[in-house]
Structure formats: structure tokens, C-alpha cells
Amino acid sequence: MDRTILLARQPIYDGSLGVFAYELLHRSIDPEQSRVRDGDEASSMVLVDAFGSPGLAGLTDGKPAFINFTEHLILNPPPVDPDLLVVEVLEDV
User: Fold this and answer.
1) In angstroms, rounded to a whole number, what is the distance separating the alpha carbons of residues 29 and 40?
2) Hey, how many other C-beta atoms are within 10 angstroms of the C-beta on 70?
């Protein structure tokens, strides 16, 4: 069964205005459900989508991906390539 992949890919620029990396964020098709109620679920969905079919390097043109991590994900990290992923610590952690 195909599942629609929804991610926001926000560029992060360096001092020369070149794209240094991308922040990947969870998004929902249904605007009523676009509010994140469970940070673990949202971050997990981003990770699954990013490392799924197109691959992280395909989503970020080979640049690093910044992904929000909850406390749970920081304490129980998924097996990811540290050269491709930058952990963003949420404000409430």
C-alpha cells in the first residue's frame, strides 16, 4: 500500500547564501490534523519518510538534514548516519 509522504523541506543557508542543509519537518494532508500533538510521532514520521523510498540524500541533495528530536528520540536514537543528520533539540527538552 502506498503512503503519501509529507515533509516540509526548509533550506538553511550559509553566510554566502548557499544552501548548507535542510530542516525536515512533519506535515499533514488534513489541515485539521496539522497541529503536532505527539512530538515523538511527528519526528518518527519524518525519520521514516526521510530514510524511506527516496532516501535522505535524495531529499536533501546530499546535504545534512536537521530533524527535531524529542527527549525520547535523544535517549533512544534510531540508527542513522551522523554525516547526514543533525539532531535538533526541541525547546521543551
Assistant:
1) 19
2) 19
